[in-house]
Write a structure and sequence with these properties.
Metallo-beta-lactamase, Chain A; 8 helices; 13 strands; alpha/beta
C-alpha cells in the first residue's frame, strides 16, 4: 500500500489499485474510504482495511466519487459488513440505489465507438449492474466534514458524470475519482466524460483548492503543474 502524509499529519492510504484506485483517510473519529472498487477485489479490500485498524466496530464512512460500477460495486457489502455510512452527490444517489451506471460517453474516437456499442446493448448494460444500496447522505454543494472528525472537504466536480465529486484532504491532496485520468504520460484528460467542458471547469475548481497532489482513480498521481498545464491546454480549446 502507498501512503501519503499531509503537513498536518493526516494519512491517506491507497488500499486498492489497478482497476480502480481506492483510498482511506484516517480521521480523529474514524475512517473515510473514498471509492470501494469491484466485487472481485472484495477480499483484498477487507484485508487491507483491517490491517489499518478498520473493523465492524470502527466508524467507517464511504464517499463515492460517482456511481459507476468499478467505483461502487462493493458499497452494499461495506454497509452490510462494516456498517459503513455512504455519502454520494445527489445526482448519483438514484443510480446507486438502483445499482445502475450513470450515462457514459467517450471523449476519444475509440471510446466514443465503445460507448455507442455499450449504450445500444441492453445485455451489456445489464452485465454492468451491481447490488444497489441507499446512501445515508446526499451531497449537493461543497461540504466540510471537519465537524464529523475528517480533515476533508467534499467538492462537486461534475463532467465525468453530473454526480461526480472529489475529496480534498487538508487542501493539499485531492482524491479526484475520474475527474482526472493518470494513465497517459503528461495527460490528465479522461477517455470518458459526459460533459468535457464541465469537466475542464471542474479542474479549475480543483486548482483553486491549492492542492499540490491529485490522486485519480485510474493510473498514477498527477502534480499541480501537470493539471495546470492540462487546464490551460483544454480550456483554450473549449474557450472557457
Amino acid at each position: 500500500m502507498k501512503t501519503w502524509l499531509t503537513s498536518r499529519g493526516h494519512e491517506v492510504h491507497r488500499v486498492l489499485s489497478g482497476r480502480c484506485n481506492c483510498h482511506l483517510v484516517c480521521g480523529e473519529k474514524g475512517y473515510l474510504l473514498v471509492d470501494c472498487g469491484g466485487k472481485r477485489h472484495w477480499k483484498r479490500l477487507c484485508d487491507r482495511l483491517q490491517s489499518l485498524g478498520v473493523s465492524p466496530d470502527a466508524p467507517l464512512s464511504l464517499v463515492l466519487t460517482h456511481a459507476h460500477f468499478d467505483h461502487a460495486e462493493n458499497a452494499a457489502a461495506l454497509k452490510r459488513e462494516f456498517n459503513a455510512a455512504i455519502l454520494v452527490h445527489e445526482n448519483a444517489a438514484n443510480y446507486l440505489r438502483k445499482g445502475e451506471n450513470p450515462p457514459i460517453h467517450g471523449t476519444l474516437a475509440p471510446t466514443r465507438l465503445m460507448t455507442r456499442i455499450l449504450n445500444a446493448s441492453p445485455w451489456l448494460a445489464q452485465r454492468l449492474r451491481y447490488t444497489g444500496v441507499s446512501p445515508d447522505r446526499r451531497v449537493h454543494d461543497e461540504t466540510d466534514l471537519r465537524s464529523a472528525g475528517f480533515p476533508v472537504t467534499l467538492l462537486p466536480t461534475p463532467g465525468h458524470t453530473s454526480g461526480s465529486m472529489s475529496v480534498i484532504v487538508d487542501n493539499q491532496i485531492a482524491l479526484t475519482g475520474d475527474a482526472l485520468f493518470g494513465v497517459f504520460p503528461g495527460s490528465a484528460f479522461p477517455p470518458f466524460a459526459e460533459d468535457p467542458g464541465e469537466l475542464v471547469r471542474s479542474w479549475k475548481k480543483l486548482l483553486d483548492t491549492g492542492c499540490s497532489l491529485f490522486l485519480p482513480a485510474h493510473g498514477r498521481p498527477r502534480s499541480r503543474a501537470t493539471l495546470h498545464r492540462q487546464y490551460r491546454k483544454h480550456a483554450g480549446r473549449r474557450c472557457l
